[in-house]
Design goal:
343 residues; alpha+beta; T-fold; eight-stranded antiparallel beta sheet; four-stranded antiparallel beta sheet; 8 helices; 18 strands
């Protein structure tokens, strides 16, 4: 989902930076991709190798609890119908998802997996679900069928007691993971940091003593299966040294054309159908958390330009950049007053 590129130095576990600072960068694999954590370790009595071990231990815990791709994770086992331990992380993620479902008025639905799968399989085999199938799935899945708190008995959550729901946290999990790592780093006394796990949380300054900078992809309308081109950047966003989560969500590399009609990858769980608007990407900056930026970016892609603009302008803790495709094939950028995109 994320189409932002951190402007980073390429050295792993290297000490560098301005006077009095001790920057290190650690890299590895997580959540089906890679992660990068770059921090100023000045005043922190911890070797870089120990920092890497701790970060990867946290990422492993997240993977074995919340990953939908790890077949042995608690989430995968829960979705398969197995009772699972009610760990704090498992319960916290559910509460966060339910909160965003309520806040978005159903635009974000973390229990509509069967509906999303029906369209995903349809995209792959060119056989889209019928209206009857969509209506049936809408009646069977979704967070409207679930309680605000998971019922725990003897430390176990039993999916059979909930009608065997299928949960999917893809729209928020990477931002949520960034926040977990950032909290650990703050706990060590670290103030200058950039955490990139597919989505980004940053705070303070980079090794050059400047605010962290993040490149935003230029969205190019390109159907699924087409070879990704070198679109370049729409511009560079700067954090101004303040804490911020930044996430970009987009449809521009994830849509399909059938019988001359465009079907976006993003499904509106309220209607049960792919969105039909011309919003190509939404970059959201949140002063609260990376999970917030992650959720709101997806929310924007569901509701389209006008509702997304209203959503971003009504919350002073949010900034954003929305890029739409015009009929003549050109792109139009809209930004909130506090979002500066340098070319």
């Amino acid at each position: 989902m994320r189409k932002i590129l951190p402007i980073l130095l390429a050295l792993a576990l290297a000490s560098c930076g301005r006077g009095g600072s001790r920057y290190v960068q650690i890299n590895g694999y997580a959540q089906g991709g890679t992660y990068t954590v770059k921090v100023n370790m000045a005043g922190v009595e911890l070797p870089a190798s120990a920092l890497k071990d701790s970060v990867e231990a946290l990422l492993l815990q997240i993977d074995t609890t919340l990953s939908g791709y790890n077949k042995r994770s608690l989430l995968s086992r829960f979705n398969a119908g197995d009772p699972v331990p009610a760990t704090p992380l498992f319960l916290d993620m559910y509460r966060e998802a339910y909160r965003w479902w309520q806040k978005s008025g159903g635009a974000l639905d973390f229990a509509a997996g069967p509906l999303y799968d029906a369209w995903g399989f349809g995209f792959r085999n060119k056989n889209f679900p019928s209206a009857a199938q969509v209506d049936s799935l809408k009646g069977l899945c979704g967070m409207s069928h679930l309680p605000s708190e998971l019922s725990v008995k003897d430390g176990i959550v039993d999916p059979s007691a909930l009608g065997f729901p299928r949960l999917n946290y893809n729209a928020i999990a990477q931002g949520f993971s960034c926040d977990i790592i950032a909290r650990y780093l703050y706990g060590l006394g670290i103030k200058d940091m950039l955490v990139d796990i597919g989505e980004i949380w940053c705070d303070g300054l980079n090794p050059s003593g400047k605010p962290w900078a993040v490149g935003i992809d230029r969205p190019v309308d390109q159907p699924a299966g087409a070879e990704a081109g070198s679109e370049g950047l729409s511009g560079i966003w700067s954090s101004s040294g303040k804490p911020a989560g930044i996430v970009t969500s987009g449809n521009y590399r994830k849509f399909y054309i059938k019988d001359g009609k465009k079907y976006a990858h993003t499904i509106d769980p309220r209607s049960g159908y792919p969105v039909q608007h011309n919003l190509l990407s939404a970059t959201v900056v949140s002063a609260q958390s990376a999970a917030t930026a992650d959720a709101v970016a997806t929310w924007c892609m569901v509701v389209g330009l006008e509702e997304a603009q209203k959503l971003l302008l009504e919350d002073p803790s949010l900034e954003g950049c929305l890029i739409t495709a015009l009929p003549d094939g050109t792109l139009s950028e809209w930004t909130t007053p506090g979002f500066t995109l340098q070319q």
